[in-house]
Amino acid sequence: MMICDIQHLSKQFGGDDILTDVSLFIQSHDRIGLIGRNGSGKTTFLRLLARLDSPDTGTIYQKSGLSIGYLEQLPVFDPHMTGLDVLWTAFAPLLDLRQSLHRLEQEMATKTDQLESLLAQYTKVTEAFERQGGYLLESKVDRMINGLRLHPLLDRPFDQLSGGEQTKICLGRMLLSEPDLLILDEPTNHLDLDAVEWLESFLAHYAGAVLLVSHDRVFLDTVVTSIAELEDGEVRLYHGNYTYYMTEKERLLLEQFHAYQEQQKKIKQMKDAIRRLRQWANEASPPSEKLFRKAKSMERALDRIERIKRPKLEAETPDLTFTAQGKTSRTVYRLEDVGVSFTESPLFHSLTVDIVA
């Protein structure tokens, strides 16, 4: 079932083309890994998909009522809330229903003259609460806490956690909310190996669609079933995991490079033929109009050729040169008497380290 159809998106920033012609079809149970070189526009595309920005051209068709989970920046919560409180905000509507159940139970105990009406309301709210999985909330939260190893963060004030710790809590909160489309940007950051393995299993069995960006190739291999490569402002979809993508990408690059070389040979041959025809036409006495027309016809045919782009076999690297004059030290990095604290809790102090080449 289609949940999102992206057609011919383009986006510019400061006159630079970031996305030029991006199209992608997302179905309800897809597991898509979005990859591309740094600066290729991955974050821009995610923001467009999450409706946090608007494309310059193109359209995004989404299923009616589609819920999207995307952790772009850390939200702000009440300063009195703990890490555990933040996790539970994923169930705000269900918690409202549970509160309604408690209120109705109290009213049924005291307002016996309205018992029939209150019982009807209680039955209706109970059915809604059960239908939405209300009786599974505690087990879901416990599963998330155990899976992402969140125990040390639960009782601490959320606003006193480090940025990485807040990100872990908010990742758990977003996973608990179970959106139709889950958009994850480097979700394994700040997670230890056990938590990463648990997240792999969680996403592999997730009920909705998943679109994720990650540089972790093992994680991509385990989770995704297709790879969307963003390159030169466009997306190409490969139906397989990251290992399949690497094999198929290499095959296609070799094919494209061979086609590019063959076309370049053909273009050179046509240009040489045009040059010779013009030379023969000029050397004829009188100059040959027939040869000029033939040369002109070949020029038009050359202009109509759809040129194959030269494939990028290797990523572009900056041209940097470093020089040293005179005697240099073998010490490449030094820390002297360094200390770091978070929220007045020292992590370490008086640290001195020399890194020697």
Helix content: 40-55%
Q: Multimeric state of these chains?
A: single chain
Q: Give the overall silhouette.
A: flat
Number of strands: 11
* Total number of helices: 10
CATH class of the domain at 1-67 and 179-240 equals Alpha Beta
What is the CATH architecture annotation of the domain at 1-67 and 179-240?
Answer: 3-Layer(aba) Sandwich
**SSE topology string:** EEEHEEHHHHHEHEHEEHHEE
Strand order of the largest sheet: 5-6-7-3-8-9
Structural class: alpha/beta
Low-confidence stretches: none
Tell me what the structure shows.
The protein is α/β, with parallel strands linked by helices and 357 residues long. Among the domains are: 1-67 and 179-240, 3-Layer(aba) Sandwich (Rossmann fold); 260-304; 328-357, no CATH class. The protein contains 10 helices and 11 strands. Strands 5-6-7-3-8-9 form a 6-stranded mixed beta sheet, with helices on both faces. A hairpin with a 2-residue loop joins strand 10 (331-342) and strand 11. Helix 3 (92-110) packs antiparallel against helix 4 and helix 5 packs antiparallel against helix 6 (163-177). It is flat, with a radius of gyration of 31 Å. The mean pLDDT is 88.
Q: Gist?
A:
This protein has 10 helices and 11 strands. By secondary structure, the protein is α/β, with parallel strands linked by helices.
Break the fold down into its secondary structure elements and pairings.
Blueprint: E1 2-13, E2 16-27, E3 31-35, H1 42-49, E4 57-62, E5 68-70, H2 83-88, H3 92-110, H4 115-131, H5 137-148, H6 163-177, E6 181-185, H7 193-204, E7 209-213, H8 217-223, E8 226-231, E9 234-238, H9 242-283, H10 289-304, E10 331-342, E11 345-356
Parallel strand pairs: 3-7, 3-8, 5-6, 6-7
Antiparallel strand pairs: 1-2, 1-4, 8-9, 10-11
Helix pairs in contact: 3-4, 5-6, 9-10
